[in-house]
Amino acid sequence: MKIKEIEAFDAFMKHGTTKAAAETLGISQSMVSRLLMGLEEELGFALFKRARNQLSPTSEAFLYHASVLRLMASIRDTQKTRMLLLITKWGVSSLLLNPFFAIPFYSM
Q1: At 56, phi and psi to the nearest 5?
Q2: Region 80-95: what's the mean pLDDT?
Q3: 83 versus 17: which is more confidently predicted?
Q4: With contact defined as beta carbons under 8 Å apart, do 47 and 61 qualify?
Q5: How far apart are CA 10 and CA 8, in angstroms?
Q6: Residues 33 and 21 sit within 8 Å (Cβ to Cβ)
Q7: Which member of 31, 51, 71, 95 has the lowest number of beta carbons within 10 Å of its beta carbon?
Q8: CA distance linking residue 47 with residue 13, whole number of Å
Q9: CA pair distance 81, 11, nearest whole angstrom
Q10: What is the mean pLDDT of the chain?
């Protein structure tokens, strides 16, 4: 299971179409479709009913999306923790400067 597949699924579930999901993620609509199919293949069950070039989420998709939302929240928490650790290690002043001019400050 790839993070890109999960992001595509989350974007589709939030926005309702592959076109809107693609715009949100900055990728093509066909890439979103491929990512969704890859996720379904990996999971071993259908997330969507397909009819006339339209995807409709299955009940499994809604249940799975609840888990994906928790996962995405956990990833955001991990990113926040990383930033807090960086700030603690390097100091706020070095993070606010352009990286080219930043000089890390160490506390001794």
Answers
A1: -125, 125
A2: 73
A3: 17
A4: yes
A5: 5
A6: no
A7: 51
A8: 10
A9: 24
A10: 87
> Two tokens at 92?
């706020």
Q: Tokens 């996720």 belong to which residue?
A: 39
> DSSP alpha helices (H): ranges in the chain?
3-15, 18-25, 29-43, 59-90, 92-96
Cβ–Cβ < 8 Å for 14, 62: no
For residue 37, give both structure tokens: 């199919």
| CB-CB contact of 21 with 32 (8 Å) | yes
The alpha carbon dihedral of 16, 21, 23, 28 has a sign of negative
Helix or strand holding residue 56 (H, E): strand 54-57
pTM across the whole model: 0.74
Report residue 51 as tokens: 């009819």
- Does domain 3-96 fall under CATH 1.10.8.60? My reply is no
Residue 94 makes CB contacts below 8 A (sequence gap 6+) with 102, 103, 104, 105
